[in-house]
Amino acid sequence: QAMLVESGGGLVQAGGSLRLSCAASGDTFRNTLVGWFRQAPGNKREFVAAITSGSGISYYADSVQGRFTISFTGAMDTVVLQMNALKPEDTAVYYCAVARGVAYSRHVNDFRSWGQGTQVTVSS
User: Fold this and answer.
1) Which of 39, 49, 112, 117 is buried most deeply by CB count within 10 Å?
2) Model pLDDT for residues 57-78, shown as the tens digit of each residue
3) Cβ contacts of residue 13 below 8 Å, gap of 6+?
4) Sequence-separated contacts (24+) of 39-46 with Cβ below 8 Å
5) What pLDDT does residue 63 have?
6) Cα-Cα end-to-end distance for the chain
């Protein structure tokens, strides 16, 4: 089972961009669904985006559609979340996770492996 390591978080002004990476240490993302979630203080963990490694089909929460892009690197060992036009409400800890299966899901309980998270802070 791969260990997931997120990186790329930080502080950015509203309207700016950040690029988050999720590396599968010792493994690759093959035949699986990989998702990004976020959790702001006092809120539940919520779905942001997901991508299937077989088809490369991506899925997005309505709140980030058109601003965020999820993709794999060529080696299939890293998932990238490119975040543009950031808003203060995007502020949260962002987590990547691997699903139990390959079917699309946005439910936290359908994901079995989680990284430790990376903080994203967007100032107004």
Assistant:
1) 49
2) 999 999 999 999 999 987 888 9
3) 122, 123
4) 39/92, 39/93, 39/95, 39/117, 40/91, 40/92, 40/93, 43/92, 45/95, 45/108
5) 98
6) 39
